[in-house]
Amino acid sequence: MDVKVETPASPPTSGGDAKTPLLDSQKPDSTTTPQTNQNSSIRQAICSTFKGTAYLASRLPAGTVLAFRLLSPILSNQGDCDVAFKTMTAVLLALCALSCFFLSFTDSFKDGKGNVFFGFATFKGFYPIDRTVTISPEEAAKKKIGPLDFLHGFLSLLVFATIALLDKNIVDCFYPTPSVEIKEIISVLPVANGVVCSILFVAFPTQRHGIGFGADPDGVKSS
């Protein structure tokens, strides 16, 4: 006994109607592709900016950044600040900012055995912290303070301000209910600071390797 399976006939369609859904489904994709690519480009730019900000954080003294990360949630009460917590948070910000600025004037050198020593640059020369070692007057003169040191000190302040503005505890402490203008400033200013500082760090590099920045790879042999 033969069993015949009949395939239901397709409903009649007019010429070209069968292709219309396919074309319609492709049409929005073609029109939204530029917008999608634009959004993707914006996201990539934002990610690159924050990666750049993370790189800039490496230009700050590691101990200062670590102290700020550890103490900011404690002294700011995780963003829920009264007058006392605001005062302590402001003191923390001021001390960390001053540390970033003044440590930009420190440098390091190596003795004949390869031991690393740190010191402070002044207008007259360079003075090691460890007074048991000495550095030649010629090398000390090369390490004295110059205009570039003040530029990098100022850039360090800007980079630290960027990190502070990206810290939710700090923002919530001083601006618990920010206005629209404050929100725009807080969202735009860190990105602008990161871009400007990145350009200036690249355009005006420094040869100093101070406290928290690592040792001078070339080294300076002390007598």
List the helices and strands and how they pair.
Elements lengths: L19 H38 L4 H14 L7 H20 L3 E5 L5 E6 L4 E3 L8 H6 L4 H19 L2 H7 L5 H24 L20
Antiparallel strand pairs: 1-2, 2-3
Tell me about this structure.
With 223 residues, the chain is mainly alpha-helical. Helix content is 57%, strand content 6%. The chain has a domain at 61-203. The protein has seven helices and three strands, in the order H-H-H-E-E-E-H-H-H-H. Helix 3 runs antiparallel to helix 5 (147-165). The longest helix is centred in the first third of the chain and has 38 residues, at 20-57. This is Protein DMP6. It comes from Coffea arabica. It is a multi-pass membrane protein. Belongs to the plant DMP1 protein family.
Please name the defining characteristics of this protein.
223 residues, mainly alpha, three-stranded antiparallel β-sheet, 7 helices, 6% strand, elongated, DMP, transmembrane helix, membrane, Protein DMP6
Quick summary:
The chain crosses the membrane at residues 83-105, 148-165, 185-204. The protein has 223 residues and is mostly helical.
Would you list the SSEs in sequence order as H and E? HHHEEEHHHH
Radius of gyration, in angstroms, nearest whole number: 30 Å
Beta-strand percentage range: 5-15%
- As a percent range, the share of helical residues equals 55-70%
- Low-pLDDT ranges: 9-32, 214-223
**Largest sheet, order of strands side by side?**
1-2-3
